[in-house]
Amino acid sequence: MSHHIADPVVHREHWREPDDDQLRLECGVCGVWGAPENEASSIVALGLHALQHRGQEACGIASVHNSESFFTERHMGLVGEAFGNADLTNRLPGCAAVGHTRYSTAGGSFLRNVQPMFADLDQGGIAIAHNGNLTNFKHIHAQLVSEGAIFQSTSDSEAILHLIARSRKAKIVERFIDALGRIEGGFALVAQTRFKMIGARDPLGIRPLVLGKLGEAWVLASETCALDTMGATFIRDVEHGEVVVIDEEGLTSIKPFAAQAARPCLFEYVYFARPDSIVNGRSVYEVRKEMGRRLAQEFQIEADIVVPVPDSGVPAALGYAQAAGIPFEMGIIRSHYLGRTFIQPSQASRQKGVRMKHSPNKAVLEGKRVVLIDDSIVRGTTSLKLVRAVRAAGATEVHLRSASPQILYPDFYGIDMPERSQLMAATHSMEEMRAILEVDSLGFLSIDGLYEATGAGPRDNTAPQFTDHYFTGEYPTRLLDREAEEGGREMRGKKVSILTVNA
Ligand code: AMP
């Protein structure tokens, strides 16, 4: 086989000082194949804009021109700043493109970790965008380095590129699949080669990926809200463990893994997905409203108003208010000129962010008994600040409700969930939390209430319908890297205490 030397490969990188906290990856990915001449990157930019809530730290687009040349641009910051108001036809030309929007990082927030990642293989280039977190990254990394691989970044996505590059299979799709066979954890991948777009979801479908059409073009994206913004029509979810290959021949579906039942991530419904997305066939907005309704049924309380923590608690608070017959009021106003609090990765900036982000609406709160609703309580930082603000604005009682169960365990599949020592519910009793958060009462939706809200029925404890370890401690895969750190203790499917927590 002759070695292919790629024609112009243009990479532009735009650096700014990152926050240095180390958190896990949360991301949005999208790609388009077969777009009108030089329009693919603009379409992907629209898709990334709709996926901005999945990560605000950095973003990038790689395009393929004439099935020959690759162009990439990677920026720190927001999609609009990087790709808005710009003519991308010259910067990122071609009929195919892949994009990525990134939350903080496995491996630090350095630009060299920003995606899409690109590699020149002997058959030509490949650009890859990855949402998720590999649970055997350290294992693979050590092995590759011992074999002579040189890593440019500390991101697990680069390990996937190395595995593809080193596969002994002949064809690019076979090499891609070969690489998938080596990785473990949660992943949704979109890759562009010179002739093909490839999409893939992990065997349990932990991370989401949907397929759409835009005229003749095929589109892949983390969420359906991106399809809507791109003007594409939703075709179907990429299935768990499915690889889709899109090229001149159309779409080919490959199922390379042993069949397993799907276990998508429950937290997409709780917090992560945008409310106008359809996840696993269910409207995220409707599921969140139903979470609120069930919350009202599980705890009956006398109050004057139901107030959401905007925006994450709004659908649940609406459902709560309707079910309880208590008026819904915007007792907290959110500034829209800041990103999501959590998405500023250090605790110091996170706390500052909370103060800047929400303001109590005194006219609504004064003299009222308030049910305050958020989608989840993680560290408790957001809740305590808001409870104090609501009381300072004159509320006479504050009853805090979380539309999801207590978060007790960290995540390793691509949702930022801190170690147990930082998870409020993992380190405190209910009464301790109530006292710390300075509320009159505190309640969390039950795990069955949450499952029922998704329409999946109660949790099937022998074969859970979702990935839900943050609530239950039952990890759906082995966690090779973490288990190695823990002296080889098997964690899959067990309720285990990963850290010794000083309660
Ligand atoms: P905390 O202040 O740590 O209790 O965080 C709770 C807030 O963060 C809630 O308002 C949630 O909407 C939001 N949140 C929950 N989980 C996540 C996550 N994995 N990534 C970013 N934000 C989150």
TrEMBL record:
Transcription regulation recorded as keyword: no
Listed cofactors: Mg(2+)
Cofactor comment: Binds 1 Mg(2+) ion per subunit.
InterPro entries reported in the protein's UniProt record: GATase_2_dom, Ntn_hydrolases_N, PRTase-like, PRTase_dom, PurF, PurF_N
Keywords on record: Glutamine amidotransferase, Glycosyltransferase, Magnesium, Metal-binding, Purine biosynthesis, Transferase
EC number: 2.4.2.14
Pathway recorded for this protein: Purine metabolism; IMP biosynthesis via de novo pathway; N(1)-(5-phospho-D-ribosyl)glycinamide from 5-phospho-alpha-D-ribose 1-diphosphate: step 1/2
Protein name: Amidophosphoribosyltransferase
Species, as recorded: Brevundimonas terrae
Lineage, top ranks: Bacteria, Pseudomonadati, Pseudomonadota, Alphaproteobacteria, Caulobacterales
Function in brief: Catalyzes the formation of phosphoribosylamine from phosphoribosylpyrophosphate (PRPP) and glutamine.
Protein's gene: purF
